[in-house]
Amino acid sequence: MDTVQVDFIAIDTDWDKKVSNHHFDIYHLSGWIHASATVDKGKPQGVIAHYKNKEVLLPIIIRDIDSACWDATSTYGYGGPLMDKTFTDAEIDTVLDEIKAFLFEKGCVSLFMRLHPIINKEWIPTVGKALTHGLTLMSDLSKSEEEHWSETQNRHRRGIKKALKMDVVTKTEYLTKQNAMMFSSIYKETMLHVKASDYYFFDDDYFFNLLEHLQDKILLITAYQDNKAIGSSIYTICEESGIMQFHLGGTLNAYTHLQPSKLITHVARDWGRESGYKVLHLGGGVGSNLDSLYEYKKGFSSQELIFKTYRLVVNAEKYAELVADIWFTDSDLCSDFFPLYRKEPTKEEVLEVDQAESLATIS
Q1: b/e map 42-61, b = 16+ CB within 10 Å
Q2: I need a surface site. Which of 76, 89, 196, 341 has the fewest CB within 10 A?
Q3: What is the pLDDT of residues 265-322, one digit of tens each?
Q4: CATH topology of domain 5-134+308-354
Q5: What is the CA radius of gyration of the chain?
């Protein structure tokens, strides 16, 4: 009788060798997982399962809850599981059941994974839950230069032409310590301008980690005017899968009128096409919303993908206990946030807690 074998595996070069046997992206590689662990303040860990000579790989980041329990999240970006294509739905369910039991024994409370819109698009689990959040956009790089220009919206064409007319030029290069610092400065100014949450303010160590482990898979495209860097974007490139993706970008506030980001995106698409990549995944809006960022990206391609996350409550009793220990409003309890016990209370909720505790003290 075939049994499922589940175990932990270190995120290292041996892990990368196993990953290379699958259709993978940069987000599954050890270098990316280690860099992401600095963002989520956790420890990189691989989960490997074998069943009927087939394999499932889960790249996760372990975050401590207390001395006995922990939970797991996926890397920043689009990670998700890797598995043999010959798995049937029933076989995957069997494997997931055993992975859940294994994680329970190891002290895991919950597992959260961002699914890859391309690699995991066909995966519909019944153990745990896959939740659909919204749409992302992808440009087909097998199209010609003329086809790409044709599907570029007029407003973006005007922006590209304006940037070129104002003598904005671009430089495409791999990540170095010097240009990483330059990018970090531009990016942080943009995040301040758009009032992004703290999560999006990456430390310089994050970029240095990418440089150290993935230099040949990180592309930096920077726009200059009069030799001054005015906008810059990071793209990930995975030659093995043919997938190129936008990761992070920014423009100096004083130069947004020159629309360098549109020129950068145009140049990135050209680079991907000319370098033989299959797709340029642009991503979606903030929080997967159909917002202005989504509309901006749609100006370069209207080909849509679905973004989903995977949620698995491993220890239901401990999960309920952790949620019960936090002051939540009724709307919070109905929220899609996962795991719910890690949701940050709003200022209004904190005020309600303070008032309740004050009343309790008076009485």
Answers
A1: bebbbbbbebeebbbbbbbb
A2: 89
A3: 999 999 999 999 999 999 998 887 889 999 999 999 999 999 999 999 999 999 999 9
A4: Aminopeptidase (3.40.630)
A5: 22
